[in-house]
Amino acid sequence: MLPHQLETCQRQCQAILDQVSSVFVGNRPVVRKMLAAALANSHVLFEDYPGLGKTLLAKVFGKALDCQYTRIQFTPDLLPADVIGTKVWRQTDGEFFLVKGPIFTNVLLADEINRAPPKTQSALLEAMEERQLTIDGETHTLEQPFVVLATQNPIEQEGTYPLPEAQMDRFALRLSTGYASTAQEESQILQRRIQWQQDDPSDHLAPVMSRETFRALQQILERMVYVDPAILEYVSVIVRGTRTHPKVEVGASPRGGLAILKVARAGALMEGRDFVTPDDVKFIARDALAHRIILRVEEALEGVHEGQVVDEVIAQTPVPKDVRARPT
Fold it and tell me: Are residues 142 and 70 in the same domain?
């Protein structure tokens, strides 16, 4: 890829980050990782406490891309048809017609996804993996881009249905926005609320690019960002290391390695490079693998976190030294 093309891609990504950060205060790395996952045509699970800006972050992100944004509030009585839609009989025409559900969108916020029963959660599986839906035997292709940003509360378990492993595996990354890191950031949140004169300023934000431009960025990522075989081996060793770790009952699936590969390539493009480095892998490996690991019962009871296991595996894995920027 030519240098001016890389600069253009980097500038476009930076514009998205700046627009989102003009509203969302703090934790810039989380915003970068969310954008990288979206560029990689992948999905993100936000696991954090209420009131930390997850909904606002998703809404502003959709606005910045001029994408259709839809929010679904998951509840115990939510049905699959409430998510994907259903066919309704039209008496005047004498035939069934499709009433599309809110999943027919570009950026979908699945709020408190673990409050819906498994049958409703599973309604997302086909859409997240294959970008299509089957309704009454008829297949409907979803418009691109299609990104699911889901949230769940890690501490409130009453009235919830834990996400099954198959569902968790569909999310490329599991992220946490966290609290404001400093008193200055906390004060900035309050100050911006005064400036906005409303709780939700997203209606007044201007898009920084069209959805077609964002889709073009996704295609450039797939075609132009090179991954050296040494990087592929590095990712493979890390993923396999989670399966042999003594604290782990079930390690990361091959989809975990694919998630690292895709999001690392996006991270490289955001940095203005058309090749992946070991640092790109390290930047997202914990977020890509921790939610795919099941710890041994005794380790979980002792308070071991899956992310600690991934950190240990990365620390023990030799970093490739001879990484080429282009094939020779």
Answer: yes
Q: Are residues 51 and 178 in the same domain?
A: yes
Please tell me the distance from the alpha carbon of residue 147 to that of residue 39, in angstroms, as a whole number: 9
CATH of the domain at 237: 1.10.8.80
Domain containing 272 equals 225-319
Q: What are phi and psi of 25, to 5 degrees?
A: -95, 130
Place of tokens 């049905």: 79
157, 190, 224 - which closes a domain: 224
Q: Report the CATH number at residue 206.
A: 3.40.50.300
Record the tokens describing residue 220, joined without a space: 């450039």
Count of domains for the chain: 2
Residue 314 to residues 4, 95, 221, 281, 318, Cα–Cα distance (Å)? 34, 58, 25, 10, 8
What is the greatest pairwise CA distance in the chain?
A: 70
Evaluate whether residue 59 is within a structural domain. yes
Shared-domain flag, residues 155 and 204: yes
Rounded to a whole number of angstroms, the CA Rg of the chain reads: 21
- pLDDT 10s per residue in the chain (328 long)? 677 788 899 999 999 999 988 888 877 889 999 999 999 999 999 988 888 888 888 888 888 888 888 999 998 899 989 999 888 878 777 788 888 899 999 999 999 998 888 888 888 888 898 999 988 888 889 999 999 999 988 776 666 788 888 888 899 999 988 887 788 888 888 887 787 777 777 777 888 888 899 999 999 999 999 999 999 999 999 999 999 999 999 989 899 999 999 999 999 999 999 899 999 999 999 999 999 999 999 988 888 899 999 999 999 999 998 888 777 6
The structure's pTM equals 0.90
CB within 8 A of 115, min separation 6: which ones? 74, 75, 76, 159, 160, 161
